[in-house]
Amino acid sequence: MPGIFGQYNKKKNSNHVDGKRMCHEQFHLLQEVTFTKGACGVVTQDLIPNGIYQDEEYVAAFYGEIFEILEYKENEWDYPIQRPEVVLKLLKQYGESIISKLNGTFLLAIYDKKEERLAVYNDRFGIYPLYYRELDNAFMFATEAKALFSGEIPQADKVGLAEMLSFDYCLESRTIFKGIKQMTPANKISVTEGGGVEKKVYWTFQSFFGDMGGRRMKRSEYEARLYHLQKAAVSRRKDEINMIGLTGGFDSRLILASLGKDAKVETFTFGKPGSGDVIGASQLSDVYSTSHHYLDFSKGEDFYPYAEDIVYRTDGMCWFDRFYIYDTAKIKSEYGNIELSGTGGDALSGQKNNFTGLFPNMSMRINKRKRERISKKIFCAISRGRLSVGKDPSYNKSFASETWKMVQDDFYEAVRACAGRTFGAFTMQLKARSLEKNCTCVSLSLCEQFIRLRYPVYDYNIVDFFNSMPQKYRYGQNLYISMIKKYYPEAAAVPHSETGKPIHRFNVVSVDLETIGSFLKGMLGFEKKAYHNTFGFVKEIILSDKGALRKMICEQPETEDGIFDISNYGTIDNLIDRAQGGEGYAFILLKNIIQISIINKVFFDEKIQMYSKSITAN
Which of 44, 247, 383, 529 is paired with 404 by a 20 to 30 Å CA distance? Predict the structure, then answer.
């Protein structure tokens, strides 16, 4: 995908990053500059002015867009800032502290020629992936991990695989590749020959509780403030023709309403015909007179090469259930090149948490001891319906025992990075750092290979606003809902996807009850009896054709080091039959086997041992 790459050479004949492996389409352009200690490069898209700039003092490589500089009101900057020479000028003028004020999504590498120092930065949320590798002779970084392989077949990280199977993503800096790590959000990595590699967090979520500049405001004041912030965020990011992935939810309808009826908008929706998302999106498109498109994803036998391409483009990190994103992006690229995206906004903005209005502990103050206790409960329930290798007897015991302690360590590293002083703020930060960063953002990075995305809901003004207001106004998204009703009554009148009713503060109670019910079932140990996929995408593929499925699955003998134990099913064919017959557990197991099989073939030359010998007597 588009992004940056490079290396800092500690010795002669060092490894070199292969930026060409990031160029998947003809319109991807590669630029590279070498310097005394290494090189920097940028892969970008046609007509986008990201790239490399150098003067007598520095080399700057920049990918992304900056829409505002927080706390700086000068009008000398032309927004959005996309050129590396402008970013370098900012750093020279204000110093490194300006990085935390850059409101946008970006990757930046700066090489200081005099000090022979390399510094690499990502934005507050780490929206674009950036991988790095530390070797004896070089430090290497790239937006795609495959650029760091240096020609060899990589080795699998067993802990990373365990995390993928348990959570749908790798935790913290872990990847599925041994020796390759991913930058966590709001990070700076600096490299010097004498000082080695130093990692530093330059920004964290606010940890205070609702002071909003020293006084509490009335609900109407909060509504007005949010309205102006949201309107400004959309206005900064709009284009002549705007695309929106429209649903019956809050974020996309608010973006559409903020643009107004005079904007040129292409809207897209997908899902089961008759579902709340499809009905809500259709009615919203009628109200705002958009050019509306319904997307269907029935791939059948074409799914395998298509899935291989997704795995390759995302370094195996894309959640299997989100493979529909790829097709969506390709279709949207035919209509324009800028999409205003609301994906992930509920967690990152803080206007929604895992357990919302009816959960009394959202405003509970937590100290270090409570955080640790709560975290243990979350850790037990966070696997989201996947196969948790640490507690599931259907996995090989040696695989589980070998990896699970390190999986827990990675999870608690994320816990320690969350500074929320209330239960609600803490869980929101943890979700932003794990699920949203390592699942949602990976899906978005896949889209970025075809279209340009802009994220109004990730606007730093909105994030800071939500995370410094009283917790009670976030219950059940109450402030969000009342603001939409007050300022956008036509948008509020369209049914919400989950309630089927026009937006009203009390309609979300049913959603809250369902959320809390699922939470309690998980805590009590009730397992799901059937697999649920929101868009029916993966389910359609697995139910379609046994022959197509067989082509995706690695054929290997059972070994001591294998991951999956299928002894309860006897053969893969029996597993497929029972999954297609509606057995939820078999469906999840088959889905995992397919995803790891594709990863195994694409990156590891099928050297991952897939199947374990039975751990119980037959």
Answer: 529
Backbone angles phi, psi at 178, to 5 degrees: -65, 130
Note the pLDDT tens digit of each residue in 77-117.
Answer: 889 999 999 999 999 999 999 999 999 999 999 999 999 99
Range scoring the smallest mean pLDDT among 139-148, 277-286, 313-322: 313-322
Phi-psi domain of 194 (left: phi exceeds 0; alpha: psi -120 through 50; beta: other): alpha
Measured at the CA of 379, the angle between CA 373 and CA 382, to 5 degrees, comes to: 140
Q: What is the pTM of this model?
A: 0.91
Distance CA 596, CA 111 (A): 38
Instruction: Report the C-alpha gap between 158 and 347 in whole angstroms.
Output: 29
pLDDT digits over 126-172, tens only? 999 999 999 999 999 999 999 999 778 899 999 999 888 888 889 99
Distance CA 383, CA 385 (A): 6
Secondary structure element (H or E) that encloses residue 509, with its range: helix 509-524
Helix (H) or strand (E) run with residue 188 in it: strand 187-192
Q: In this structure, are residues 277 and 497 in contact, taking their beta carbons and an 8 Å threshold?
A: yes
Burial class (CB in 10 A: 0-12, 13-18, 19+), 289: exposed
Backbone angles phi, psi at 56, to 5 degrees: -70, -20
Q: Which residue has the tokens 């899902």?
A: 271
Which of 35-44, 355-364, 503-512 is the least confident region? 355-364
Question: Does the pLDDT value for residue 505 go beyond 80?
Answer: no
Task: Label each residue of 26-48 as H, E or C.
Answer: CCEEEEEEEECCEEEEEEEECCC
Torsion angles phi and psi, residue 344, rounded to 5: 85, 5
Q: The tokens of 72 are what?
A: 């700086």
Structure tokens at 213: 């500049």
Tell me the pairing of strands 28-35 and 117-122.
Answer: unpaired
Q: Is it the case that residue 389 has pLDDT exceeding 60?
A: no
Indicate if the pLDDT at residue 387 is higher than 60.
Answer: no
